[in-house]
Amino acid sequence: MTTSDSSLAALANPILSLRGINKSFGAVQVLRDVDIDVWSGQVTALVGDNGAGKSTLIKGIAGIYPFDSGDFTYAGEAVKISGPKQANELGIEVVYQDLALCDNLDVVHNMFLGREMKRGVSLDEAAMEQRARETLNGLSVRTLKSVRQVVASLSGGQRQTVAIARAVLWNSRVVILDEPTAALGVAQTEQVLNLVRRLADNGLAVVLISHNMKDVMQVADNIAVLYLGEMAAQVPVSQVTQQQVVELITGGRSGDIGIQHAVTA
Predict the structure, then answer these.
(1) 186-197 pLDDT, tens per residue?
(2) Cβ of 236: how many Cβ atoms within 10 Å?
(3) Distance of alpha carbon 151 from alpha carbon 166, whole angstroms
(4) Average pLDDT of span 12-31
(5) Claim to verify: residue 237 and residue 157 sit in the same structural domain
(6) How far is CA 74 from CA 39, 61, 77, 88, in A?
(7) Helix (H) or strand (E) holding 201
């Protein structure tokens, strides 16, 4: 890998760092010696064609799949994540494309689903509502009329907002977003991208998985490109063009950036 560049290397210690990550399913090697760094206060876009290994990498970080080999460093310490609960306890949250929201519940109950606050044997509705409001206000969310709206009544962009707010409610430090603007209209996409930017500006480390290069170039600080299970490059967005990113995605190399043995398609 040619993880390019001194400007990334010069950044302060990453909150999450993977080195030499390998993962196979039977005879199929899906990830091959993958390195990636994720920094607090930055949006790291993880891009690659279908089958490049993005989902496997993210599921390994989230504790769903164990990596076969490699080093996982979090907040400066070597860790072994054995399951999603441990990843959550470390402060790693993933918002998957299906959002996992319950249409018949309101915003508050969705945000606390499975982690409800109780007073004795009863739900502490007032405390949950207050924390939900505080979280949404902290993210400058203005698109929801009420935290008691039923999710079934929300637009796609509003649903995405609720899912992201739920992820940051639990003292998260790393938030991974899987295609958050997929199937959204122009106005809703802009709202979600603004929210993604605010997450980073609030000090969180954000990993954005997207096929939309316009979104990536607009909101990301750096771009990590997977090509056939290898990390072709991780570069600051300010130092590559959209065309170069596309070449890295499709061929693993663009000019002097990328995998040495790859040939640009």
Answers:
(1) 989 999 999 999
(2) 16
(3) 13
(4) 96
(5) no
(6) 11, 10, 5, 13
(7) helix 186-201
